[in-house]
Amino acid sequence: MPGGRPSPLFARGLLVAALALCSAHCAGPARKPALHRIVIRRFSYQPAALEIAAGDTVEWVNDDIVPHTSTARSGAWDSKSISPEGSWRTVPARKGTEPYGCLFHPSMKAFLVVR
Amino acid sequence: MSRTVGNITRSAALLLALTLAAGVTSCGKKQQAAETTPAPAESTATATPPPPAVSDANIAAIVVDADSIDIKNGLVAKKMAKNAQVKAFAQQMITDHTSVNKKATDLATKLSLTPEENETSRQLVSNADATRDAIKAKTGANFDKAYIDNEVAYHEAVLDMLDKTLIPNAQNADLKSLLESVKPAFQAHLDHAKQVQATLSK
Question: Which of A10, A94, B61, B161 has the least C-beta neighbours within 10 A?
Answer without folding.
Answer: A10
